[in-house]
Each structure stands twice: as structure tokens, then as C-alpha cells.
Amino acid sequence: MTTWLRTRTRLRLPITLSVVLMALNVTLMICWIVLLARQTGWGALIIGVVVFAVILLGLSFYLVLIIKEVRLNQRQANFVDSVTHELKSPIASLKLYLETLEMRSVTDEQRNRFYHVMGEELDRLDHLISQLLEVGRLDAIGEQSEPEDIPLETMLHKCGAAACAHHKREEQATITYDVQPAVIHARPLVVETVFRNLMDNAIKYAGDPPAVEVQVRVTDRGRVATRISDNGHGVPPELRKRIFGMFYRAGSELTRRQKGTGLGLYIVNTLVRQMKGRVSVHGRTNQTGSVFEVDLPGRKGNGEL
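RE: above sequence
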């Protein structure tokens, strides 16, 4: 609630100022038109109308820029809040377990359980830091390797297994594959980064138990369409374009239940565009959940175009 009020306050000033300036501009334009219509010719009247119209367009453009800037600042603030929380939580957990091990004796079973939890927290930290580093070097991801023919089915199974392991889920019970043989010519690390992020998101935002479907179809136009569906709540239509923006996460960090930084889909969108592809999100027909579709240049797995 506090974040919403703060955002509303930030937007109120530029909107009010722009509306007042627009109203003043319109009033001056009307007075100008009436005055010139009475005293001078049509030439001066037309010039005045054009000048005021340009000013009005400039003010409108200024309003749009200000609103975008305020929203960007809000997303950045949310990003800082989420990263701070994501960093502090595992560090606090690690500190607690280490202090427990130092201050009192524990059984072997308890010690092994502590080590297991501490390993999970370290994996969480490693994943967050890796994602932050990926954003800083998106143009350089995979540059150490040359593009090659990648069997998409093998790559999707690899990403699915990694995402299931990250969320402590059984792959066979969580992900269903319906994959036509297809080949993508790209850098392996780039393709893996794209689909691992999408698989991770699908499981994270799926229902309980999570059910993810992966479908691959090769078109006659030399394109490969990969659809990753989940059984979660879905993405509202008004947010389906915005979720690919940098730092964007729906809602407030004060009330959000899912962990994350709002960078995953931005990374996916940027890398897919680098591969001359498109990524989009849709609702599922007659079902709850989302469908993320990645359209990339490719060919059939048997080598036919």
C-alpha cells in the first residue's frame, strides 16, 4: 500500500503540471485565433495555430517521457528491493546455521541437514549473481564459442532437468515433451540461457503440483516454434508486453510471494532478438496458465529446410 501511494505521489506532480500547461496552451491558442481572426489575415492565423499545435505536441511528449521515467525509477527501486532481499536471505540463513554449528554440538543427522540447506542457499546466491552478471554482458554471452547446429530436443531436456533440479522437482512428473526434431544454428550458451530461464519461470509460476508442457513445431518458412506452457495463474493481457522490460515485476516487493529480480525475461527477450527471433506470451485455451512462445530460425532435424 505504501509503495502504491508513493508511486501515485510521484506521478501526480508531472501529470498535474503537464495538464495545466496544456490547458494554458489551449486557452492561449483560442485567444490567439479569436484575436487574429478579428484583426489580421489568415497567414498569421495559420502560423499561430501551427506554433501552438507544436507546443501542445511537445508538452504531450514531455508528459509521456516523464511518466516513463517515473515508472522506470519505480521498477529500479523494486529491483533494488528484490536483489537486497535475495542477497540478505541466504546470507542470514548461512550465518544462522554456522553460528549453530559453532555454539553447540549437533548430531550427525542434524549436521548433514544443515550442510544440505547451506548448499541450497549457496546455489541460490550463485544463481542470482550469475543472472546479474548475464545482464551486464548480454552482448558477450557465448562469444567464446562459434555458432553450431544444436539439436533442440537435447537442449530442452538439458534445460528442463536443470530447472527441475533447481526447484527440487522430478522431471518426468513435472515436464511433458512433445518435440518435433529440429535444429537451431546458434551459440549453445545463448540457447541454453534462453530456455533455462523460461523453464525455470514455468516451474516457478506453475500451480501445485507444477505441470509444464514443452512443444516444438517446425514451420515451412524455416522457423522453429517452441511453446512452454504452465498451469499457473497466467499473465494478464495488459502485462504481456511489459514483463519483458528490464527490472519489471508485477506488484510490490512488499507483497510479492515469488522470489526473483525481474531480469530473467529481459535476458530472454534480448538474446532471442540477437538470434533474429521473437518471444511472446499468451493465455492457454480453456485452461489457466501461460504459454511462452519462442520463434527462431531453424530447420527440421533430418536436415531438410
